[in-house]
TrEMBL record:
One of its GO terms (biological process) is purine ribonucleoside salvage. It holds the Pfam family PGM_PMM_II. Residues 485-541 form the Alpha-D-phosphohexomutase C-terminal domain. Its cofactor is Mg(2+). Keywords: Isomerase, Magnesium, Metal-binding, Phosphoprotein. The keyword Repressor does not apply. This is Phospho-sugar mutase. Signal peptide: none annotated. Belongs to the phosphohexose mutase family. It comes from Cryobacterium zhongshanensis. GO terms for molecular function: magnesium ion binding; phosphopentomutase activity. The lineage of its organism: Bacteria, Bacillati, Actinomycetota, Actinomycetes, Micrococcales. The keyword Nucleus does not apply. Residues 46-187, 211-309, 364-449 form the Alpha-D-phosphohexomutase alpha/beta/alpha domain.
Length: 571
């Protein structure tokens, strides 16, 4: 009650004020539901970490609101000032998407950071996350903030932080997250929101957006054949920027899923605005059937993710969404083909052992998260490129040395590291469209290309089990059980060994992840989600024996057995 009353006294938002007053009245009347809700909102504080902040909008320290965001802005400002070089004024560029309260959270942040002595630059309007990530580098800012909850449910919002300088515009990682969190805690403990000085912030020119569009469009060549595509923005902010990129690159505009093209914070046509969720692409498939589309392109609400679907006569909808691993593998293959030829003398095979049909070694690194398919490593090995596995999240993928392409299976792709050091669903859509255009010019489809991939590198099958919980302790109990009583078999497949990444592993920082290696080469990864109340299990199998069809059958049979076995283990 005391914490809620103190919070109410500094809350500048009329909506959350009314919400909190109602709960206080209920608690004073011994309404158990109101008391329980106050505990849920004030017993804990929404933690600031490497994913920034993300949670449901509402009053209280454990919700997203103007008090919490103002404290975060003041704490981040203190961190930037404290780490700036002598005589240097730190700067921050702030962006926001179309979610509820995104703009007000962004303007609050800009005013408070300006008042603290940071040069604060607000993007000119609601824009995709990749534009903010680009702007950090383009404006040589010390930091960036993006107000978004990406693909979370409509009730959520969030606060992503990027750092410039030596971080090259990547999202924050440890220990910077802890330093920022400490400054936020100091502000929350010693200052109220009315105490925080507001200053005058700048509004960025439209030229920042124009520069992103120009550099993204220049990352591909002119189309060799136009593609009949369908596009959905999933009620987010992706379309306007995507349209301008496609026009600048010379590609025909796709047919739009009209009901999902304009930003709408209520996301009326989808329960979860995430293209991975079942049913999320139903309207896109219906539109695609109407125009007999060759390709379906979907961005999530802040356009940092990309989903792709292709015609499939065996599907009831007529289309099949490709997995993030399938898209990552073919975009990685494209990146390897496009990488500058640069023989690597100490690794190149010469003399009698040389394979005249093998591609010359290419420079650069292909990288993916540890829960993504091993397929990308097969591509890197075939082209003599470096390969790097990172912890989950583009804050890690984007930091791979010499990166030319990076991805993670959750529909995130980094195809143009010189422009954006984060996943970018717009540049990835253009890269994929360029690939499909080239294939069409040669008489092939994307389905053909996937077939050719399996023939060239082996067939890789992947699947995921995602268990949403209401009590986060359920996830801890499953992880503890797997650690204390490790399985000898998953289904009928024997476990070879288990790597526990909790204490760090082979150069990777500590992470709450179990990697289960099975006899025969299959792999299972188990971890809690970093952004949602979910336990996630990633299953990967492969086969290089026989025809492509035989490889598919063998890999899929193992995959089905692993899925059955893991569902029993985590039940």
């Amino acid at each position: 009650m005391a914490a809620a009353t103190a919070w109410l006294a500094q809350d500048p938002d009329a909506e959350t004020q009314a919400e909190l007053r109602a709960l206080l009245r209920g608690a004073q009347s011994a309404d158990q539901a109101a008391i329980t809700e106050l505990h849920a909102r004030f017993d804990e504080r929404l933690a600031f970490g490497t994913a920034g902040l993300r949670g449901a909008i509402g009053a209280g320290s454990n919700r997203m609101n103007r008090v919490l965001v103002s404290q975060a802005a003041a704490g981040l400002a203190a961190f930037l000032i404290g780490t700036a070089l002598p005589g240097q004024t730190p700067s921050v560029v702030i962006g926001y998407d179309g979610r509820k309260n995104s703009q007000v959270f962004a303007t609050d942040s800009a005013a408070i950071m300006a008042g603290a002595g940071v040069r604060a630059i607000l993007l000119p309007r609601l824009l995709p996350t990749p534009v903010l990530a680009f702007a950090v580098r383009h404006l040589d800012a010390s930091a960036g903030v993006m107000v978004t909850a990406s693909h979370n449910p409509a009730a959520d919002n969030g606060y992503k932080v990027y750092l410039g300088g030596a971080n090259n515009g990547s999202q924050i990682v440890s220990p910077d997250d802890a330093f920022i969190a400490a400054e936020i805690h100091r502000v929350a403990t010693h200052a109220t929101i009315p105490d925080l000085v507001r200053g005058v912030y700048e509004t960025a020119e439209e030229t920042v957006v124009q520069a992103y569009i120009a550099e993204t469009a220049a990352s591909v060549g002119a189309p060799r054949a136009q593609v009949n595509a369908v596009y959905t923005a999933m009620h987010g902010v992706g379309w306007d920027t995507t349209r301008r990129v496609l026009e600048a690159a010379g590609y025909d505009l796709p047919t739009l899923v009209d009901a999902q093209i304009a930003p709408d914070p209520t996301f009326p046509t989808v329960a979860f605005p995430n293209p991975e969720e079942p049913g999320a692409l139903d309207l896109a498939f219906a539109t695609a059937r109407e125009v007999n589309a060759e390709l379906v392109i979907a961005n999530d609400p802040d356009a940092d993710r990309l989903a792709i679907a292709i015609p499939d006569a065996d599907s009831a909808s007529g289309y099949r969404r490709l997995t993030g691993n399938e898209v990552g593998a073919i975009l990685g293959w494209r990146a390897a083909e496009r990488a500058e030829l640069a023989p690597i003398a100490d690794e190149a095979v010469t003399g009698d052992d040389a394979d005249a049909s093998a591609p010359a070694p290419r420079s650069g690194t292909l990288a993916c998260s540890i829960v993504s398919s091993p397929a990308l490593k097969a591509v890197a090995d075939a082209y003599g490129m470096r390969f790097e596995e990172t912890l989950t999240g583009f804050k890690w993928v984007s930091r791979a040395p010499g990166l030319v392409f990076g991805y993670e299976e959750a529909l995130g792709y980094l195809v143009n590291p010189t422009t954006v050091r984060d996943k970018d669903g717009i540049s990835a859509a253009l890269a994929l469209l360029s690939l499909v255009s080239d294939l069409k010019n040669e008489g092939f489809t994307l389905a053909d290309h996937l077939h050719h991939f399996s023939g060239r590198f082996g067939h890789f099958s992947s699947s995921q089990i995602s268990v949403r919980v209401t009590d986060l302790s359920e996830i801890s109990r499953v992880m503890d059980r797997l650690r204390s009583n490790p399985p000898a078999f998953i289904g009928r497949i024997r476990v070879d060994h288990i790597d526990d990444l909790a204490g760090g592993f082979v150069g990777l920082p500590p992470s709450d992840v179990l990697r289960i290696r099975l006899v025969g080469g299959a792999r299972v990864m188990v971890r809690p989600s970093g952004t949602e109340p979910k336990l996630k299990v990633y299953l990967d199998t492969s086969s290089v024996v026989g025809t492509v069809v035989e490889r598919q059958v063998a890999a899929n049979a193992v995959l089905a057995e692993l899925e059955r076995g893991m569902r029993e283990l985590i039940a």
